[in-house]
Amino acid sequence: MGKSKLGSGKSAGALPSGTALGLPSPPWEKLPIQKSLDQNIQTIKTIFKDCSDMVYRNLEIAPDITALVVYVEGIVFTTELETRIVEPIIEAYVRMMNADPEERIEASELVPLENTRISLSQVRSANEWVDVVEGILNASVAVFVDGLSDVRLFNIKGGIRRSVQEPETEAVIRGPREGFTETLRVNTALVRFKIKTPNLKMYSMVLGTNTKTDVVVSYIEGLADPKIVEDVINRLKDIKIDGILESGYIEELIEDHPYSPFPQMQYTERPDSVAAQLLEGRCAIFVDGTPFVLVVPVTFFQLTQASEDYYERFFITNFIRWIRYIFLFIGMFLPSLYIAVTTFHQDMLPTTLVLSIASAREAIPFPALVEALIMEISFEALREAGIRLPKAVGQAVSILGALVIGQAAVQAGIVSAPMVIIVSMTGIASFTIPHYNLAITIRLLRFPLMLLAGVLGLFGIILGTTWILVHVTKLTSLGVPYMSGISPFHSSDRKDIFVRAPWWKMGTRPSWLSRNNQEREKPEINGRPDSNKVW
Amino acid sequence: MRRSLFTGLLLLCSSIGLSGCWDRTEINDVAFVIGTSVDKEKNLYRSTLQIALPGNLGGSGSQGGGGGTSGDKKYYLESKTGITLRKSFLEVQEGNSRKISFSHRRTLLIGEEVAKEGISSMLDQFARIPQNRLSSLVAVTEGPAYMILDAQAPMEQFPSEMIRKLMNQFTKRPVTLKYLTNDLLTDGIDVSLPYFSLQEAVPEGLTETKTKKNIQITGLALFKGDKLVGVLKGKEVRMINLAMNQATSPDILVPGPDGRGYVTIKLTENVVTLRPVIRGDDITMNMRILAKGSVIENDSDYSLDSERTMHKLEQNASKEIIQQIHSGLHLLQDKYHSDVLGFGRTIQEKDPPAWERFKDRWEKLYPTVKVVIDTELHVENIGAVDKPFGRKDEVLKHD
Asked: Which parts of the chain span the membrane according to its record (chain A) (predicted)?
C-alpha cells in the first residue's frame, strides 16, 4: 500500500497543468490569447470571477494603444509595481504626447515591452491562458497589450512575509542565530550564502495541483550520491496531490517505511544545519511556505546530534553527547524499568531503596502500571497543553500542572512520590533529544514498553527492546540503513557516532554517503598545534 | 488475507493481557524480611523473622494506609516453630497477609543452642531457594537469637541493619552464607563467626525506664566441624581476628615503656601471612604481620618525640601483639581444638604432599603446631601532638 506510490516504473511527468485534483477541467485550458484586448479582458474576468483580490488596471501605453495590467493584490511587490511598471509606461506615454502628437505608433513596435518600457529582469511571455493564469497566481504581473497576442509576465513576488529570525525549535548557545523563513528563495539564499560553489544544485519543481507549491531539491554535485538524488527527485515527481502546505506532507509521501514510528527524515529550521548536511553529501528538500527544510537520508545517530555538537569543543561535545545517550535510554526505559522492578523483581533493588519505595507506595490504590500510565499520560497532556495554549496562559498551566501532578497527587495519596520522580526524569530525558521527531517517537514507544513491563516484567522489556532493535536495524531512509555506522559497521564512522572526534581528526565523510568522495580534509597539514612545537 | 492476519495478531496480543501477570506481585503485597534468627526449642526450629513495616518508614503519602501495628516501630517480629527451618518459615507465611520475601534478608542469626547442635542441616534451604541471598551475613548469638533481633538499634532503622554494619566493621570480609558454607566444606579450616550479645548501653539508673541494651560483638564463636565448641572472649578476640587477617583496624594497648600508663595504637593497615615450615611431623607456622599504626592515645608520661622512642614503642607494641596472639592461639589449639586460622588449609596450599600425610591425623597434629610470629610494625602517625598533651616537660621520659 505504502510502496505503490514509490513505483519507479511510472512516468515522472506532472499532471497536465490546470487539472486540479477534484476540480473539473477548466474550459480555458489550451485557449490561446486573442489579439483583441476587449476579448482578453472578458476572458480573464470570467476566469477570475468572484476573485475580489484581482486588480485590473487599464493604461494608455501609446496613443490609441491600451494595455491592461493584471495582478493579485498582496502577493506582488507593490512599490516595484508602481515604479517599474506603471510609472515608466505613463511617463513614456506623456513624453510621447508632448514630443509629437501626430506620430502614430504600432503596437508591434512596442514589442518586447521590457526593452522599451519596463526594466525588470524576471520576465517571460505567454501565449496561452494556462500560462498566464499560472503566472498571475504565482505573483507575476501580466501586461496585456491591445493588438498583441503575446502577454508579458513580470515576476515581482512580494507581499508581506516573515523576515529571517532566530529559529525557535532549535535554539543553540553557540552557532548562527538565523533561521529559515516561509519564503523559499530566502531559504535557498541562506544556504547559498554558506556554500559558494556552482556544484550546489537547486533542482526546482512545482507540487500540488491547487497550491502549486515550489519545491527545491538541493544537493552538492560530486558529493551527494547521484542515485539518492535521482531517487529523491523521482519520488517527488510521483507525488499527485492537490496541495502541499508543509514539508511534512512530502515527508510522509516519500518516506521508505510509512508504518514505522521512527522518523526517516530530519527537518530543520537552521541553514547551518542544512549546509552541514549538504557538505556531508545529503539532499535537502526546500518547500515554499514553511521554514522547515527536510534533510535526507538520515540515520538514527544523526537525529541524536545537534548542530551545536560541531561548534563546541570536542571534550564538551562528547560529554553532552553521552548525557544525551544516557537520557535517551532513560526517556525510553525508565518508567518500564520501574514498573518491572517494583512489580516483578523487588529482589533486584538495594534493600534501602526497595523499602523506601514500598513505604511511599503503601497507601497508593493503583498498581504501579496504572499509576505510571496515569502519570505519563497526564504529563503528555500537560506538554501538549503547554504548546497549544497562548503564551500568557502557558505559564499558568505549567504551574498548575506542576502543583497538581507533582505535589497534590502525592499528598492525596493517589500517586507515589517515586513515580513523580520517574515521570519528571522521563520528561526531562525526552527533551534532551535535539530533534523533536525522534523525541516524540521515544515518548511513544515508552507506552508499549510500559505495558509489556507491567505484563511480563523485565522479560517484556527485553522482548520490546529486541523488537525495536530489529525494526531499527531493518529500517532505511532513502535506501540508506537507519543504523549506518553501527550496522553496517564501518570503522571510519566511529569518529562521529558515540564520540565526536575533534575537527582535526574528521578526515572523511560518513561512509554511507558520498561513497566516491570520502576525503573532506587533510588533517596532517591543518593548522593543528604540533605538540613538539612551542607556540 | 490482510484482514485475517490482523485479526490473528490482535488475538495473539490480547492473549498476552489475559495470561500475563502470573508472577506479578505489587511491591505492597510483599513483606520484606530484613533479618531472621534461628533457635531450637526441643526438637523444633524456632525461626523469627524481622519484617519491615513500610507504613512506618515515613515515606510521604504513607500515613494513610499500611499496617497500623505496634505503634511507630519500623519493623515487627513474627516467630513460628517447625520441624524443619523451611517449615517454620512457611508457618509464618500462614499468618501473614503479604507474601514473605527473603530476598532482602541481610543477616541470619543463629542461637547458641542451634550452633552447638550443628548448622549443616539447616543450610540447605538457603541455597535451594534462589530468592535467598547467599550474601546474608551470619552470626551466632549469646542466648536465644530472637532477643537480639528485638534489641534497641537507635541509630538504624532495624536491629538487623545494625548487626550488618557491626559485622562490616568487625572483619575485612564479613562471613556471608557463601563463605560460611565454603569454610564448612573445606578441609583444614574451621568456621568462626562473630558472637553477638546484649550489653548495657548506659549505666543502670541513668534511664528511668527499663535498662537499655545494645547489640555488640563480644567474642568469636569457634566451630569444630559444624558445631559450636566455644566462644573466644576478651582482648584475644581482636588479636586472633588480626591473625586471621580479618581485623579492619584493631587497637592495642601498649604499656608505657617505663611501665606506667598505656599508649593506644590503632593498626590502621595490616596484612598477615602464614607460611608453614615442615620437618617430619614438626610443623611450624611462620606468621608474618605487616602493620602500620597510629597512636591514638598516650596516657603514659612517655614522650614520643624521637626516632629512638618511637622504635622502642614499636618494639613494645609488637611484643604485646605477639603475646596476645600466643595466648589466643593457646586457647584455640589446646582448649577448643578449632583451627579457625586455617593452618591446615595453609599447609594444603603451600605443601600439598605434606597435607596428604597430615590430613587424617590433623586432629592430633593441630595442637602441636608451633607458631612463630614475626611483626613489622610501623607507627607512622602519632597525631597532632608528640608529647603527652597535659603534662609538664619536666616529668616526661625521654629515653
From this structure: 322-344, 389-410, 416-437, 449-470
Q: Among the three residues B233, B249, B266, which one is the final residue of a domain in this structure?
A: B233
- Rounded to the nearest angstrom, the gap between the alpha carbon of residue A52 and the centroid of all alpha carbons in its chain is 32
Q: Cβ separation of B57 and A454 shorter than 8 Å?
A: no
- Identity of the residue in B30, B64, B157 whose CB atom sits nearest the CB atom of A413: B64
| Alpha helix ranges (H) inside A81-202 | 87-99, 113-116, 129-137, 184-194
Same domain, B99 and B247: no
Q: Which helix (H) or strand (E) holds B14?
A: helix B2-19
Residue B14 located in a structural domain = no
Where on the phi/psi map is residue A469: left (φ > 0), alpha (ψ -120 to 50), or beta?
A: alpha
- Chain A positions touching B59 (Cβ under 8 A) are 356-362, 416-417
Per-residue pLDDT of chain A (535 residues; tens, 9 = 90+): 334 444 343 333 444 444 567 677 777 777 888 888 888 898 888 888 888 899 998 888 877 788 899 999 888 888 888 888 888 888 888 887 777 666 666 666 666 777 777 777 788 888 888 888 888 888 889 988 888 888 888 888 877 778 888 988 888 889 999 999 998 989 999 999 999 999 999 999 999 888 889 999 999 998 999 999 999 999 999 999 999 999 999 999 999 999 999 999 999 999 999 999 999 999 999 999 999 999 999 999 999 999 889 999 999 999 999 999 999 999 999 999 999 999 998 888 988 899 889 988 888 888 899 999 988 998 888 888 888 888 777 777 777 777 777 788 888 888 888 999 999 899 899 889 999 999 999 999 999 999 999 988 999 999 999 999 999 999 999 999 999 988 888 888 888 888 898 888 888 888 888 777 888 887 666 655 555 555 5
ipTM of the complex: 0.82
Q: Which chain B residues touch A417 with a CB distance below 8 Å?
A: 59-61
Same domain, yes or no: B112 and B56: yes
- Which residue ranges of chain B lie beneath pLDDT 70? 1, 15-22, 58-71, 205, 207-212, 259, 397-399
Clarify whether residues B184 and B91 are in a common domain: yes
Let me know if residue B94 belongs to a domain.
Answer: yes
Chain B partners of A455 at a C-beta cutoff of 8 Å? 16-17, 20-21, 24
Chain B hits for A368, CB-CB cut-off 8 Å, are: 26-27
Range of the domain at B272: 234-399
How would you label B107-120 residue by residue, b for 16+ Cβ within 10 Å and e otherwise? Answer: bbbbbbbbbeeebe
Rg (C-alpha) for chain B, rounded Å, is: 27
Are residue B206 and residue B241 in the same domain, yes or no? no
A436: which residues sit within 8 A by CB, 6+ positions away? A169
B149 shares a domain with B59? yes
Domains in chain B: how many in total? Answer: 2
Q: Are residues B91 and B180 in the same domain?
A: yes
Structure-block grid coordinates of residue A28: 480555458
Q: What percent of chain B is modeled with pLDDT above 90? A: 46
Q: Is B200 in the same domain as B346?
A: no
Q: Does any domain span residue B58? A: yes
> Chain B: nearest CA to A394, how far in angstroms?
29
Distance from CA of A262 to the nearest CA of B (A): 21
Strand partners for A76: A157
> Quick one: pLDDT at residue A340?
93
Last residue of a domain, one of B198, B233, B268: B233
Instruction: Give which of A370, A328, A341 is closest to A468, Cα–Cα.
Output: A328
Provide the grid cell at B25. 506481585
Asked whether residue B5 is assigned to any structural domain, the reply reads: no
Q: Give me the CATH number covering residue B323.
A: 3.30.300.210
Cβ contact B26–A455 (<8 Å): no
Q: Cis link prior to B276 (omega < 30° from 0)?
A: no
Pair (B173, B244) in one structural domain? no
Number of Cβ atoms within 10 Å of the Cβ of A106: 10
In this complex, the residue of B32, B59, B101 whose CB is nearest that of residue A362 is B59
